[in-house]
Amino acid sequence: MVKYCIKRILLSLLILFGVSVILYFLVRCMPVSYLEQKLASSLGSSGGDVSFEQRLQELKEYYGLADDSFWGICKGYWDWLMKFLQGDMGVSFKYNRPVEEVIFENMGISFAISFVSLILQLIIAVPLGIKCACNQYGKLDYIVTVLTMIGISFPTFFFGSIMIKVFAVDLGWFEIGGLHSNLPVNATDWTRFWDMMWHLVLPMFVLVILNIGSMMRYTRTNTLEVLNADYIRTARAKGLSENKVVYKHVFRNTLIPLVTTLAGILPGLFGGSMITETIFSIPGIGNIAYSALREGDIPFIMGYNMFIAVLTVIGILLTDLMYAVVDPRVKLGK
Q1: Collapsing DSSP states into helix, strand and coil, what is residue 98?
Q2: Domains annotated on the chain, with CATH
């Protein structure tokens, strides 16, 4: 196990190096530049007499972005890599703060939304998928299949906009966006907490509805395969009750393929839901990253994407290790 982990960690470091190279070259080729936009806004408001191109070149030289040739980009990447290995992701152009500070300060709300949504998805999707598989081609199976296909087909921005229109604008049950209402100054912490929770109902509802379908269908498909296995027929032939067969033998073996979803869960928990947070104006890391991406904030884009890449690699490693936990037949020694 130790040898396997060391081997995978070394391979992961190589993958992360390749990802960082590709990311940096792509970011340097972005058509939008935060420095250019910021300088244009500054000169327009202050009426400075220094030429735009000269000031822009000075800023690019200061941040190491002046040379757009191949070797200049390579040098810029090397400088960024050395700082990154020392734990320095740079200073965000847009937020004028260290990238790691911006990420960790805005990650909490994104994690809370994603974690609660994930728990609700598992509670609903896994039992529902098993139930549909045990009643294949029944009324419940057809109804759930149709509803999940509709949910999967909805784009996030479209479904989120419908929820805002119906429940926030027309019915007035929820706020259109944000995290807090206009509460009085003397409002208690408990009141502020429940106010924030009420603001998060719609975003979490959107995440659950749009993601529950794929997980339910995946569970249903895996359960159908397990139900047709020889050892399930043997268990039934021994006189075991149907509930014992399903929830003791079928359920455990259904979890084995579901473990593969762990690889995407970790970056999803900490990386934020970019579209959902943007639609509902939630100041999470996804919304922050989207704003930085639109304005060409190179340090933040690099830091955020590398943060997601590290989480993805860790998630894949945990997935492989979890296989050995849920399936004793899997050996990780090689």
Answers
A1: strand
A2: 2-85 (no CATH), 105-326 (1.10.3720.10)
Phi, psi at 327, each rounded to 5°? -130, 100
Question: What is the rounded average pLDDT of the residues 245-251?
Answer: 77
C-alpha–C-alpha distance, residues 107 and 46, integer Å: 36
What pLDDT band is residue 79 in, cutting at 50, 70 and 90? confident
Q: In angstroms, what CA-CA distances link 312 with 94, 144, 262?
A: 26, 31, 9
Structure tokens at 172: 């007035």
Residue 171, pLDDT above cutoff 80: yes
What pLDDT shows up at residue 141? 85
In the block, which residue shows the tokens 């980009």? 73
Angstrom distance (rounded) from CA 183 to CA 186: 8
Buried b (16+ CB within 10 A) or exposed e, 123-150: eebbebbbbbbbeeeeeebeebbeebee
**Mean pLDDT value across residues 174-183:** 78
- Compute the distance between CA of residue 192 and CA of residue 75 in angstroms, rounded to an integer: 49
Q: CA-CA-CA-CA torsion for 155, 156, 162, 163, nearest 10 degrees? A: 150
**Residue 306 reports pLDDT greater than 80:** yes
- Report which residue type is found at 226: V
CB 43 within 8 A of CB 55: yes
User: In Å, how far from its chain's centre is CA 313?
Assistant: 14
